[in-house]
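Apologies for my clumsy wording, but could you write out the amino acids of a protein and the tokens describing how it folds?
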Amino acid sequence: MGTRKLSEYIIDIVLFLTGVGLMISANGIDPGSSIGIGGDFMPKVCTKLWVLISIGLLLWEKGTPDDHVKGITADLKGFFGTLVLLLLYIAALNILGFILSSCIYMFIQMCIFVPKQLRDKKHYIIFAALSLIVPFAVNTLFVEVFSLLLPAGIF
């Protein structure tokens, strides 16, 4: 089995197990006292979709040919960097709040994903702009449309 194929299986299995864990956690959410759809609806729908998509990815990977003859190498350093960054993001949410921690997370994550040859001043400006616009837009959407507050943090 080629390195890339193995890394794809690892990622797909981690996604599946994470989805199952989130689905179990979402089932413990209290629907609240609202009439109609409660606060547990979207987490349950999203986690079920997550699990279905991860199963689809596993099946897709099973059907793709092995790459060991192509000599493609996997970027496991990027995968584990992303995993650590995601854990730090989750830990920072209650401390820094949604907007600040999301801005930092998005900028660093984009730097991890983009190849080194594409990291120049122009792309860093784009990364910074997206890292500022998206968390503010998501926060506004959740507060104004869904009437839900995201973690505010200590700032």
Observations:
- The two ends are 49 Å apart (CA to CA).
- Helices lie at 3-27, 41-63, 76-96, 98-113, 121-145.
- Residues 3-27 form the longest helix (25 residues).
- The chain has a mean pLDDT of 83.
